[in-house]
């Protein structure tokens, strides 16, 4: 381009290739610095093409054809030809190549007698493709006895069918892209394009069947009836430019001839036009390719999964014997529209949804038009589910097209009219992008271009008729529209199931159509609510009235219900949400937080639908809700805190209280806050079990210390206190292994100060201990704060508090082996630190015998354990699933480790630990047990501890027995990280398997049984 003015002009027209000017001059459209006379409209149409450079290169190739002079002359006068031609050759390299290879097809893009107007219907297209393979369109359909057959067979038929198919696509794509090249031309609606693509596919099936008949049964002697049922988008009359065509074959009889015909149809159509997928047939790819009608019905009635009935929503006879196709459609329809009555309907649909979402690669999820968040599948899945739920009683919803079904759902009141219109608009936009991306090279793709691929984005924006608004480039406009529509689809998908339901139960006036309560109950039942009527009552209570809170609930509940529907117990979750909402009705930030922080709402529904403990605590500790927000960049999750900082903060807050009652109330409140925080982090999978137990133990220790400090202030007298006191943690408290419902096992030890006598010191310290126990153990709606001192010398009949000297004397004279075993977990947790250290020095020779454990003592420990196994298990408990006393459970593992400690701690100092898991690791490192055995014991202890905690979280009260079945078992499994809608039996199997292996180790290591 030697002329600067012409170069600038061509660049403004989008023609940036160096040879563009020479090409235009050769075509006779450009001279010097502008278009030649009469070529101006051509240049502007070329400039509006999705890719002007590609369009010009293709036209240059087309100019070598004998027809070019005629085409050139028509382009100067035929506005329709300009729009269709330049829209096509700039929008599809594949169809541009077809036009260059077959230039005589150009009239298909022109106005006039050769331009089909109105566009061809299915019958005309079928006739065109049948003629292409030499079949008589007037003959009975191929697939019926005596039906028509093709003249061409083999490679000749495939080639003819391929060309005829591309001809049909050429004409349709030209009309579809015409308004790109000439904005004054009418825009072809996506619904019409998709319907015509389905018509073309059906015509291909009919022509391919005619060829197959000519190859397999040329004389018509077999008398086979074969019907081809279109499924998926073809059956729904909403096909893409490039898509597999899903089909099912029905044969009478389903003999070898029928199977050969079906196989040849697959091969012919696949080689000529598009892939045909018959995997939606009964038993999928492993099932027979052709079945009789009775064979299909027998399978659907006995074996079909829910997803197969969902697929049959779009089943439509497409080719072959029309009567057999009609019989098939009529026979399967009742089965389809009763699918929602199946007991496993919700679980099947949820599982299918997970499988579909798992198909997309993680790095493509954000760009996948079909399967990504806010993609086409979100719309299709929601519409199909609503159809299955409500189509049982409302035949108006029985439409195969997604957009037609969505329109019917809106008209019949199952979807708000505005929501339905917005969802349809976004669906059309996403399908338009999908069509343009597939047209480009006639390849199957659903992937939106990457944000850094500016050239691809610019081409797509122009092909999709995105226009600049004067402030933003078309690429920016495209990205904004893509993000806006994807977000709108995702948001509407979340509320689509529920918005009409809420309108029905709300007392507020609404402009949208109302959903009847019977339909609302049917939807709730289908989505997993065991008591739809109860759920409706909760929704009425939440959305009733004209308050701002009711209005916000109207907005919130669609998303919240969607989350609840996937929880283990939606009924309990909705009741809990109502309780929390009513309790926090006067908290100004509560609903605003749920509305503005989507992660808070999502996390809260998981918690409420799983746990009874969380809502009980939440109504009295609502501030924890703020911690549910997901962390921003560079921040840790607010639910995770340093236990030492938490303990220091708790003690400081309690110390500020003016009296004992206020201090106790503050300690309870802070403990409630921390208990809820830890429970939330646990249920959300943010804390491993060792950190959960450590955090719970740290809170208990802080509460004990704060309560003791407050009691000392309350009982203070003039002068120094008469005694020092230390609290020794025992059992799980000493091991820092507390669960949510664990008591605090302790020993109280004191020491006189100054001239105080032992008697006076014990009396003072006993007052402190009783005050602490009484204040913490007072009735409360929170989980109990039981301070249990029954492990003290002489048990309940012995004094609550002893001096250090008294403990020394008792252990020297009366101590039994079980007390040495109990002391293995002793550690100071509160009170005077120096006194606690001296107590530890006192008991170390007792619990860590230098010479090991005498054989008689080991026998006594085994005898006691056997008696515990026989007598302590509650009546009716299942030993296989009792977390504490069951086989391979907590007691089994802990007693085994403690026996090893008593036997070997004298020679293995690393066994001096109060932690079960640390002790097992030390035993394995010292070679006392194999690493495999240590791992089995650790696994049994861990799963039993986690399960015991989960029972408390789910039921809201302590329990050692796992639920045997039902929603409690499902909730326990979900709390442990198993899929909420999966089979909880998977968890039970793993629990039994893990604890069974641990018990086998116990039998060998603790009881000395031989290895089997």
From TrEMBL:
Coiled-coil intervals, chain numbering: none
Domain Glutamate-ammonia ligase adenylyltransferase repeated: 156-328, 602-840
Residue ranges occupied by any PII-uridylyltransferase/Glutamine-synthetase adenylyltransferase domain in the UniProt entry: 351-497, 864-1006
GO terms under biological process: regulation of glutamine family amino acid metabolic process
One Pfam family of this chain: GlnE
Catalytic activity: [glutamine synthetase]-L-tyrosine + ATP = [glutamine synthetase]-O(4)-(5'-adenylyl)-L-tyrosine + diphosphate; [glutamine synthetase]-O(4)-(5'-adenylyl)-L-tyrosine + phosphate = [glutamine synthetase]-L-tyrosine + ADP
Function: Involved in the regulation of glutamine synthetase GlnA, a key enzyme in the process to assimilate ammonia. When cellular nitrogen levels are high, the C-terminal adenylyl transferase (AT) inactivates GlnA by covalent transfer of an adenylyl group from ATP to specific tyrosine residue of GlnA, thus reducing its activity. Conversely, when nitrogen levels are low, the N-terminal adenylyl removase (AR) activates GlnA by removing the adenylyl group by phosphorolysis, increasing its activity.
Protein's gene: glnE
Name of the protein in question: Bifunctional glutamine synthetase adenylyltransferase/adenylyl-removing enzyme
E.C. designation(s): 2.7.7.89, 2.7.7.42
Positions of region (Adenylyl transferase): 509-1012
Record keywords, A-Z: ATP-binding, Ligase, Magnesium, Multifunctional enzyme, Nucleotide-binding, Nucleotidyltransferase, Transferase
Highest rank taxon of the organism: Bacteria
Organism annotation: Pseudonocardia asaccharolytica DSM 44247 = NBRC 16224
Needed cofactors: Mg(2+)
Region described as Adenylyl removase: 1-501
């Amino acid at each position: 381009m030697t002329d600067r003015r012409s170069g600038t002009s061509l660049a403004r027209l989008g023609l940036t290739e160096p040879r563009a000017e020479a090409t235009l001059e050769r075509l006779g459209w450009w001279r010097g610095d502008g278009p030649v006379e009469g070529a101006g409209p051509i240049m502007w149409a070329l400039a509006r093409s999705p890719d002007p450079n590609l369009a010009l290169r293709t036209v240059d190739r087309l100019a070598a054809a004998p027809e070019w002079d005629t085409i050139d002359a028509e382009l100067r006068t035929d506005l329709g030809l300009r729009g269709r031609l330049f829209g096509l050759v700039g929008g599809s390299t594949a169809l541009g190549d077809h036009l260059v290879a077959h230039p005589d097809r150009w009239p298909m893009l022109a106005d006039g007698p050769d331009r089909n107007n109105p566009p061809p219907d299915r019958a005309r297209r079928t006739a065109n493709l049948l003629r292409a393979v030499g079949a008589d369109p007037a003959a009975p359909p191929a697939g019926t006895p005596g039906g028509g057959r093709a003249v061409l067979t083999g490679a000749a038929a495939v080639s003819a069918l391929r060309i005829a198919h591309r001809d049909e696509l050429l004409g349709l794509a030209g009309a579809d892209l015409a308004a790109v090249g000439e904005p004054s031309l009418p825009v072809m609606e996506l619904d019409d394009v998709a319907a015509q693509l389905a018509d073309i596919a059906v015509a291909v099936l009919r022509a391919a069947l005619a060829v197959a008949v000519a190859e397999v049964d040329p004389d018509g002697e077999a008398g086979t009836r074969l019907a081809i049922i279109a499924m998926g988008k073809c059956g729904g009359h909403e096909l893409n430019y490039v898509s597999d065509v899903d089909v099912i074959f029905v044969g009478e009889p389903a003999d070898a001839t029928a199977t050969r015909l079906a196989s040849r149809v697959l091969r012919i159509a696949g080689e000529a036009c598009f892939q045909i997928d018959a995997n939606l047939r009964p038993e999928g790819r492993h099932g027979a390719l052709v079945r009789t009608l009775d064979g299909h019905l027998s399978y659907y009635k006995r074996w079909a999964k829910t997803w197969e009935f969902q697929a049959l929503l779009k089943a439509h006879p497409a080719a072959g014997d029309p009567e057999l196709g009609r019989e098939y459609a009529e026979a399967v329809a009742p089965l389809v529209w009763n699918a929602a009555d199946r007991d496993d309907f919700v679980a099947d649909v949820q599982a299918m949804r997970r499988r579909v979402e798992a198909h997309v690669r993680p790095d493509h999820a954000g760009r996948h038009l079909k399967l990504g968040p806010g993609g086409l599948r979100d719309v299709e899945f929601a519409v199909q589910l609503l159809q299955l739920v409500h189509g049982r009683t409302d035949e108006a919803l029985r439409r195969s097209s997604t957009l037609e079904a969505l329109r019917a759902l809106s008209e019949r009141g199952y979807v708000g009219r505005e929501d339905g219109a917005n969802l349809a608009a976004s669906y059309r936009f996403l399908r338009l992008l999908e069509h343009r991306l597939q047209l480009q090279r006639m390849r199957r793709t659903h992937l939106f271009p990457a944000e850094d691929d500016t050239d691809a984005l610019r081409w797509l924006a122009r092909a999709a008729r995105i226009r600049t608004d004067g402030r933003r480039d078309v690429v920016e406009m495209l990205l904004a529209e893509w993000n806006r529509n994807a977000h709108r689809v995702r948001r509407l998908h979340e509320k689509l199931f529920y918005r009409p339901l809420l309108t029905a139960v709300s007392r507020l006036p609404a402009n949208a159509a109302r959903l009847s309560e019977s339909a609302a109950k049917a939807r709730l039942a289908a989505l997993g609510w065991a008591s739809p009527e109860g759920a409706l009552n909760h929704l009425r209570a939440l959305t009733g009235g004209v308050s701002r809170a009711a209005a916000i609930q109207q907005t919130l509940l669609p998303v919240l219900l969607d989350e609840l529907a996937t929880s283990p117990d939606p009924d309990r979750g909705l009741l809990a949400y109502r309780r929390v909402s009513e309790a926090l009705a006067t908290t100004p930030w509560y609903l605003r937080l749920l509305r503005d922080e989507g992660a808070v709402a999502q996390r809260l529904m998981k918690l409420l639908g799983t746990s009874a403990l969380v809502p009980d605590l939440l109504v009295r500790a609502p501030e924890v809700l703020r911690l549910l927000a997901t962390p921003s960049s560079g921040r840790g999750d607010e639910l995770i805190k340093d236990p030492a900082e938490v303990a220091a903060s708790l003690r400081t807050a309690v110390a500020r209280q003016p009296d004992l009652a206020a201090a106790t109330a503050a300690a309870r409140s802070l403990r409630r806050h921390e208990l809820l925080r830890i429970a939330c982090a646990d249920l959300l999978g943010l804390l491993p079990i060792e950190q959960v137990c450590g955090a719970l133990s740290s809170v208990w220790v802080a509460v004990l210390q704060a309560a003791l400090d407050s009691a000392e202030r309350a009982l203070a007298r003039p002068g120094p206190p008469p005694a020092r006191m230390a609290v020794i943690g025992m059992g799980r408290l000493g091991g820092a292994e507390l669960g949510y419902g664990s008591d605090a096992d302790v020993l109280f030890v004191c020491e006189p100060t100054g001239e105080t006598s032992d008697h006076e010191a014990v009396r003072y310290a006993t007052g402190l201990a009783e005050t602490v126990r009484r204040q913490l153990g007072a009735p409360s709606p929170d989980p109990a704060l039981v301070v249990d001192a029954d492990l003290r010398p002489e048990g309940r009949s012995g004094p609550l508090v002893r001096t250090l000297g008294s403990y020394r004397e008792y252990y020297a004279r009366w101590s039994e082996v079980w007390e040495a075993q109990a002391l293995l977990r002793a550690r100071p947790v509160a009170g005077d630190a120096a006194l606690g250290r001296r107590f530890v020095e006192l008991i170390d020779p007792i619990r860590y015998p230098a010479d090991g454990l005498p054989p008689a003592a080991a026998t006594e420990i085994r005898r006691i354990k056997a008696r515990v196994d026989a007598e302590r298990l509650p009546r009716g408990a299942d030993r296989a699933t009792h977390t504490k006393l069951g086989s391979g459970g907590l007691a089994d593992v802990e007693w085994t480790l403690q026996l090893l400690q008593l036997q070997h701690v004298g020679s293995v100092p690393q066994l001096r630990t109060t932690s079960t898991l640390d002790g097992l690791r030390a035993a394995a490192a010292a070679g006392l047990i194999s690493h495999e055995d240590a791992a089995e014991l650790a696994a049994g202890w861990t799963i039993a501890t986690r399960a015991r905690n989960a029972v408390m979280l789910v039921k809201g009260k302590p329990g050692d027995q796992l639920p045997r079945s039902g929603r409690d078992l499902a909730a326990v499994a979900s709390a442990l990280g198993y899929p909420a809608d999966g089979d909880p039996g998977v968890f039970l199997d793993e629990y039994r398997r893990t604890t069974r292996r641990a018990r086998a180790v116990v039998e060998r290591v603790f009881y000395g049984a031989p290895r089997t």
